[in-house]
Amino acid sequence: MHSTLEVASWDNCEMSLLSHQLELLSPARDADIGIEAINHGADAVYIGGPGFGARASAGNSVQDIERLARHAHQFNSKIFITLNTILRDDELEGARQMAWDVYHAGADVLIVQDMALLEMDLPPIQLHASTQTDIRTVEKAKFLSDVGFSQIVLARELTLRQIAEIYAGIDADRTKIEFFIHGALCVAYSGQCFISHAHTGRSANRGDCSQACRLPYEVKDAQGRIVAHDKHVLSMKDNNQSGNLESLINAGVRSFKIEGRYKDMQYVKNITAHYRKLLDEIIEKRESGADPDAFPLSRASSGRTTFTFTPDPNQNFNREFTDYFVNDRKIDIGAFDTPKNPGQAIGWVTAVGEKSVDLELSSKATILHNGDGLCYHTLHKELVGMQINRAEPLQKIGHWRVFPKDPMEGFKDLRKGVEVNRNRDMDWVRVLEKKSSDRRIGLWAQLAPTHAGFALTLTDEDGFSGSFELVAHKESAQDATKNIASLKTQLGRFGSTHFEAIDIAVDEAAPWFIPASQLNHLRREALARLEAARLAGYQRPQRMQPVEPPAIYPEDTLTYLANVFNQKAHDFYAKHGVKVIGAAYESQEEEGEVSLMITKHCVRWSMSLCPKQAKGVTGVQGTVKAEPMQLINGKEKLTLRFDCKPCEMHVVGKLKTQVKNQLAKELALPAETPLKFYRTRPVKQSAEA
C-alpha cells in the first residue's frame, strides 16, 4: 500500500481513528454559498469574518456566520474563519474582539497567519496555521504544532515525499495536515510575495493582492536579448489533484482544501461535489476490505450526499490544470499565453458572415445555447471571447450558426479553420442554478407498543437518539402483512428534513392499526427530540495547548520574510528563542532591492534554459548559465535571480517612492510601545552596566 513512499513508516505510527478522518474543506464567499458547500458534501467550510481575512472583499457579518454555523453543525460540519492577515498594532484589539464575536456565533476554527494572536486573550477556539505561514519543512511544521496549532496548511509546492517527511516528523494525533487540492495557484510561496505592496501599496499579506503574477511580461536575458514577448510567465495553471488523492492520503494529508473564496455558487457546488465523490470512493474501497493492509478511513462529518448532476471540473473557470509539484517538477505548469479561461475545444469555424459565424462541432451530440460563451486564439495566441446572442442548428447535423452579442468587426483574426472552445455552457449553468444536491443523515427507526399507546425511537448514524410516546387506543389490523408495510412507508417519509431511514423496525407480533395522522405526529415529535439531542451533543473542536517550556523556533534570526508587523508578534518570536527580528516588508524599512517574490517556479526551466536541463547534453553543457533575467511590463521592471541549489527563483525589485510616501501616514500611527527591530544581533550589556 505504501511502497511508493519509502519515507512513510506506517508501522511506527500509533494513531487514533480521528487521525484517519478525511476532511473536505470548501471555500465560501458568503453564507449562502457556504450552506450549499455543506449541502454538496463539505466536511468544513472556510469563510471570511467581518475583517482581517486574506481576501479583503470577502467579509461576512457575525449574523451570517451564525446562520452558516447553525446549518453546518446539523451535519457535524465545521466552520473555519479566516483571520489570516498580518496586523498593525492598532488593529490587534479589533482582531481580538472579532475572534470572540465569531466564536460566540458558533465558529469552530480560526485560520491564522499573524503570531500576535497567540499572545492575546482569544476564546477557546481551535487554531489552524494558514498557508501564509509558509510551511515547507519538518522543523517549521513541528514548531507550529508545538505552539498550539491543531492543523497546518502545507505549501502547495511540496512533493509527496516532502509531505510524507513532514507527516512522519509531527504528532499526527496532535496536528493534522491540510493541503490545497484544487483552484488557482499563487506562483509565490504563500506569504513570500511583496510585489503588489512594492508597486501599488496593496499588500497580499493584508488581503489586497493586485495580482502582478497574471500580467504579461517581456522577458530579457542578461545580454538584453528578448527571450519572450507579452508572455504571462508568472501565471500558473490551476491546481487539480483529482488523480493524486489516495497518494496524498498515504503521504499524511487529512484535510483536502479547495481554493476559491472569490468563486461563485456554481464553482463551489461543482468542485465540492467532484471531490466528495472521489473521496467517498476511496473511503468505501477501504471499508470493503479490497486492500487488507490499508488503514481504515472515515468522513469527518455526517450524512451522505446525492447529486442531480455529474460533477465536472472542466465546466468551471480554469486556466487548464496541473498537479504542480506533487509528482516532482514538470515543465508545463504555466498558463503563459493567457490567464483567462480557455474552455474546452468543441469545433472549428467554417464560415464568417457579416453578423454570424458558422461552426462545425467535433461531436454531433454537442448542443449550443443562447448565452453560451465561446473563445478562440488569435494568430498571436491572444484569447478572444465571444458570447452567443442566438444559436441556430443548420440542416447538416453537427453544424451551427451563431450570432455573437458583440459586433463582428471586433473579432480579430476570426477566420475559417480557427478552432473554437466553449468556456460557458448555459445548460450546465441552469442545472446548478437549481437545487442540485440532497444530503441526508441515516437513522434507524423502531416502533413499539407501550402500556398507554405507542413509542417511536429514532437513532442516527452518530448514535444520537430521540423518542416520543403517543397515548393512543390500540386497534388490531385486519391485514397484518399489508399493515406492516404501510406503517414502514408512513414512518419513512422524512421529506425535506436532513434524515433518511436506513431501517424501520415494527413489532410484527402485534400488528396494530395506527392512523396516518398519529404516525406523522409520532415521527415529527421523535425527530424534534433527535434534532435537539444532536444540537446538545455537538462538540466544537478543542484549542490545543502549547508545549512547555516554550518550543524554540528553528532559526534565531528572522528577516522581513517572516512578516512580523506588530509588537506582539515580535514578542512571540522573542519568547521562542529568536534573537534578531526584522520588520515586515509592509513596515517599509527595506528601501533597496530585495526579493519581492520567492517561487519554486523557474522561468529558465519552463523555457528550457536551465543549466540542469543542459547537463550532459553535448554542445550545450556549460553554455547555459543561471544568469539573471529581466521582466518588463510597461514601466515596471523586475529582475529574476536563480538559486539553483534549492531550485528556486527570486523576483527582485524595490519599493516605489510614491508608494512609500502614500503609506507614510498610515504607518505613522502612534503605538504605546514602539517596535524594536534589529539588522544585526544586539550586543548584550554587561551586568556592571
What would a concise description of this structure say?
The chain is α/β, with parallel strands linked by helices.
Can you tag this structure with a few keywords?
single chain; about 700 residues; alpha/beta; TIM Barrel; Thrombin, subunit H; 4 domains; eight-stranded parallel barrel; six-stranded antiparallel beta sheet; 15 helices; 32 strands; globular; disordered N terminus; disordered C terminus
Q: What's the topology here?
A:
Elements: E1 21-28, H1 31-39, E2 44-48, H2 62-73, E3 78-83, H3 92-104, E4 109-112, E5 126-129, H4 138-146, E6 151-153, H5 160-169, E7 176-183, H6 195-200, E8 217-220, E9 226-231, E10 238-240, H7 245-251, E11 253-258, H8 265-288, E12 298-299, E13 304-307, E14 321-322, E15 344-352, E16 357-361, E17 373-377, E18 383-393, E19 399-404, E20 419-424, H9 426-433, E21 437-449, E22 453-460, E23 465-471, E24 475-476, H10 480-491, E25 499-506, E26 512-513, H11 516-537, E27 557-558, H12 567-575, E28 580-581, E29 594-599, H13 603-606, H14 611-614, E30 629-633, E31 636-643, E32 648-653, H15 657-667
Parallel strand pairs: 1-2, 1-11, 1-12, 2-3, 3-4, 4-5, 5-6, 6-7, 7-11, 10-14, 21-25, 27-28
Antiparallel strand pairs: 7-10, 8-9, 8-30, 13-21, 15-16, 15-20, 16-19, 17-18, 17-20, 18-19, 21-22, 22-23, 24-26, 29-32, 30-31, 31-32
